[in-house]
Amino acid sequence: MALVVRTDLQMKKGKIAAQCCHAAVGCYRQALRDTPELLAKWEMVGEPKIVLKCESELDMFDLHAKAMTLGFNTVLIRDAGHTQVAPGTVTALGVGPGEVESLVKGLKLL
């Protein structure tokens, strides 16, 4: 599973962690509903996750569109706006579980 965070928002570490958790849970729920066999395989290999960064909302939307086109479970996280960002701000993207390496190659670790 890949968790992608926007760096242009300059969120603090705790906020980033919370957004990644939202993305992971969202992907898990979607996989439980849509691809339970893939979810079971992912659980058997230790539920690997990687946290990556992207530089803008546009980059995140592009990555989300590619993930959908390739048939990955994917979820965009929009913040409620109670703390560091405005309501509705897209903060993170979750993709997977699955073989997401080809989709996220070129992104840097956060």
TrEMBL record:
Coiled-coil regions listed in the entry: none
MF annotations from Gene Ontology: peptidyl-tRNA hydrolase activity
Keyword Hydrolase on entry: yes
Catalyzed reaction equations: an N-acyl-L-alpha-aminoacyl-tRNA + H2O = an N-acyl-L-amino acid + a tRNA + H(+)
PANTHER family attached to this UniProt entry: PEPTIDYL-TRNA HYDROLASE 2, PEPTIDYL-TRNA HYDROLASE 2, MITOCHONDRIAL
NCBIfam families in the cross-refs: arch_pth2
Family per record: Belongs to the PTH2 family.
UniProt protein name: peptidyl-tRNA hydrolase
The organism of origin for this protein: Cloeon dipterum
Taxonomic lineage of the native organism: Eukaryota, Metazoa, Ecdysozoa, Arthropoda, Hexapoda
